[in-house]
Amino acid sequence: MGKRWSGAAIGAVVLAGSLTACGGAAGGAPDKPFITAPEVFYLRPHGDKAGPRDKMPYSLVAEDTAGSGARTLTAEVPKSAEKTVVLRKYGGCKGSSTRVTCEVDADYSNWSDAPRAKVVAAEGAKTGDSAVVTYTYTTKGGKKLTARTRFVVGEPVVEAVAPESVQGVRPGSRLTAPVVVRNTGEVPVRGLGLELTVDGSEFTERYANCRYPRLQKGHVAVCEFPDLTLEPGQTVTLSPALRLRTPRAQMYTSYRRAVWALDMGPGHYATVHEGGDHGDGPALRPEPTGKHSGDAFVAGGGSTYVVLDTHADYEVSAVNLKGAPGDRKTFEIEVRNNGPADVGSPVRLVFEPPLGTSVVEQPMTEYDDGVYEPYCKSDGSAYTCDVQALEPGQTHPFEFTVTLGEPGAGTLTLEDKKPSSPWDVGRRDPDTGNDTAVVRVSR
Q1: What phi, psi does 206 have (nearest 5°)?
Q2: pTM for the whole structure
Q3: pLDDT computed for residue 20 by the predictor
Q4: Is residue 192 a contact partner of residue 259, using CB atoms and an 8 Å limit?
Q5: How many other C-beta atoms lie within 10 A of the C-beta of residue 391?
Q6: DSSP code, position 426
Q7: What is the mean pLDDT of the chain?
Q8: Where would I find the H helices in 87-140?
Q9: Strands 301-308 and 165-169, bridge-based pairing
Q10: CA atoms within 13 A on the CB side of 247
């Protein structure tokens, strides 16, 4: 089970007498008011709309369950920071570029409610400059709760080497993949998060300082490096390298690495898996490294597809139908993967009935509850059907019902689909002679 990161989850702070972040926000007494906001939030420099993708937006939440009626929320920029950040008011809020007051609901969120005081970098502010903005939430009873966020001009941008594919890997072999990370942002990365995911492969080594969530059956590792600082332009290699055992009966597998700055979170819609035991192998350690200008760095990380050096022999079986013209016959066309590998879904079956034989029933698929449509596409003379992914030895049957015509022969052909991506090499079928067969009608 994963968790959705929010601004509060990244680092919420509540300061109001004896109140803490546990009051109300973290499962405390439901009648206890609270306010939460991130400890740190990064801003784009003035006029700059670039920056990391899928960034977690700023999240401020306040609640007072003492009944209906308006509360007030005030945002203040200290005088010493007026050249670093400014406030913009929305939704009926009032005030200036340094102090804004809003009337808000008893259950307030700046994500869902119109009143808000947005903090942006001031014109002329330099990257690395920072300012602490104070938010004061006044409850119905007159209590003042405060939360503070340090806004930093500029953002860390974490990238990882993620080549799109690796070709020619022997099935069942051990694959070694380095984890290389760099910061291409304007300010330092203070604390690094890493999630490693394998699909179809297995970890052969489990790091002592990473969690392996049980529900993911050993296919996910989550690692955190809270003490790591990556200066802008700096690159590190996490050692020892990732070691995977590739499958024996698949042509394609993949592994993914996701990276993020801990105080930013992994992204607005990202999920980080919870729980799990630590591994029993060596600890994963960051080591400074040289430039990797020729490598494929991807912001936030990415997946690498592994193409194994194997193939699959697909076969379509002939069909013999006996009967007089007008007879109705039901039969199956079988497409079989003779192995040795599962290569996904790279082929289509093209069925051209014998002249004079007409199809009256064809395979159907349920696209809504109790609603069906033809599985195959027809141009009036032939039926083209996608063949599902088949494991070695597995067959995909297609059931048709026809009304026979005079004796004759139709054709069955396995047609390769267009490659889905640059790394898609198809089935590499070594025996294309069994890619065709006939549907014969005789008396």
Answers
A1: -115, 120
A2: 0.84
A3: 30
A4: yes
A5: 12
A6: T
A7: 91
A8: none
A9: parallel
A10: 18
